[in-house]
Amino acid sequence: MKTHFSIIIMLISGLWLSSCSGKNQKKQQEPQITAQNPVIFADVPDISIIRVDDTYYMSSTTMHMSPGVPIMKSKDLVNWKIVNYAYDTLANNEALRLENGKNAYGKGSWASSLRFQNDTFYVSTFSATSGKTHIYKTRDIENGPWEAITFEPVLHDNSLFFDDDGKVYLIYGGGDIRIVELKEDLSGVKPDGINQVIVPDAGKVAAEDLMLHAEGSQVIKHNGKYYIFNITWPQGGMRTVVVHRADQITGPYEGKVALQDRGIAQGSIIDTPEGDWYAYMFRDYGSVGRMPYIMPMKWEDGWPVLGIDGKVPDTLDIAVQNIGASGIVTSDDFDGDKLPLAWQWNHNPDDRYWSLTEREGFLRMTNGRIDDNVEQTRNTLTQRTFGPVSSASTLLEVKGMKDGDIAGLVALQKRYGFVGVKMENNSKSIVMVSAETEEPVELETIPLEQDKAWLKIDCDFRNRTDKARFYYSLNGNEWKKIGEPLQMAYSLPQHFMGYRFGLFSFATEKTGGYVDFDYYTIGDEITE
Questions:
Q1: pLDDT digits (tens, 9 = 90+) for 312-341
Q2: Which structural domains are found in the chain, ordered by start?
Q3: What's the whole-model pTM score?
């Protein structure tokens, strides 16, 4: 009996040890999760980044969108969430109101500079649309309020810099990099302060023949030296990072090429609490826009050395998993009285003609004026598309439409495409419109005999396929293709940003019609 019992115990022990060994082996074989580039597969260009204790904040460019200059927060340099915007509206003029044929596409506010000084956060930017340089400041970057300071002239791609002696500067320019000293209250250029070129034709350190002269300045001070990072583009080459350094802020500066890899360029460098350094730059990637990449950085002989052997790694030495764009885009059921921060209006909204409370649980859009097309209509509500693939869908209720009204879901850029509902001669139709040739063409029309239409757009950015496909449903379950795939294209100088999903409604004959959007749902799978 003892013998049998011993054998049983041995067998059980052996199985347990084997199981433990298998578990340990499995645990050892599990790959370590590390971050990947791009850290966000979406349009987040012109990065300026700071660290406050163990928290990172980043600003970016959204140009003609309102609100503008998004502020994003991260604890690990990889996963970011929008926490605020520097302004609700940049200015109030015809271009930003999309009036009289004017617009601010590709304009609005450009590259910003984010700083933290004496317990106050600052964002500087500039705008040809407003004709001014803008500085916003707050004690609470996540909640505001922001104080706005504006002055002339327009200082292109400026970088705000607080020096150790209490003086404040903007370093700016294209080609020649200049410096101006600001008044103590930042309300304008100091009349008798420093105002001069400090790096003549800064891009020439990369090549004599340049397609894009140096711009996009970002300035830091490290170990007593001043460093100015710029982007430039040699003819026949790629976007290139150049850096200049000096012992005095006014120079003289010496420069060198800091990075040439896949056109990844323009941004900031940042240190961690542990003393590690990283560079944050963007890469053009077709119609999805300009995506942020992060790379390790080290100091050698007083120079920043970006990447590994001159290349930006696709896998990072940061032990976290990417959440991708999920911190900057969101689904929405339109409950409550506020829009999530992921939403931005295409140009300045007219708040009289949209509501989350007029019909509880819905976004109501009312047509307050006559427009020709979706690109010129006001109150188009947008979010970023994202990659490698992304999908957006909505349920549209249309019983409030009037003749000539068109409403729906758009993939917005110069060469836009949309699926929506059109009211004509008291009859409703589901339509797909393509502006692939930059002129809108109605490619398919299907009669609609009900007051509800489910709409969906899929975007495929894999390997720069850049295709958008359009669908509709009459019951929310069975999707049918409509029209033709849109060959998306990143347009310069028109929109100068990645494609946006957008909810819209506009009138072509008479005002007062309205539609209700029940929800907006995004996903990272598409219908093949």
A1: 999 998 999 999 999 999 999 999 999 999
A2: 48-327 (2.115.10.20), 344-523 (2.60.120.200)
A3: 0.92
